[in-house]
Amino acid sequence: MTHRFAALGPRPSARPRTARSRRFGALLGILLAAGAAGAETHAQHLGPDPGLMPGAKDRLAPPARLAQRATREAAAAAAGAASARSGPSARGTRVAPAEVLVGSDDTDMQVDGQDFTETTRVMVNGAPVSTDILGPTQLRARLPATLLARAGRLDLRVVDGQQDSAGAAALVVTVANPAPRLNVIEVPALAVGEPAAFIKLIGKAFRPDSTVQVAGKKVETAYRSPEELIGTIPADLLAAPGTLAISVVTPGPGGGASLSGQITVTDPVFPGRFVVFTSNRQGRNHVYLLDRRGNRLDSLQEANSPDGSDAYPSISADGRFIAFQSDRHQGQYDIFLFDRETRTLDSLPEANHRTAFDGFPALSADGRFIVFESDRLGKPKIFLFDLRTRALSELKQANETNADDGLAAISN
Question: What's the structural domain count of the chain?
Answer without folding.
Answer: 3
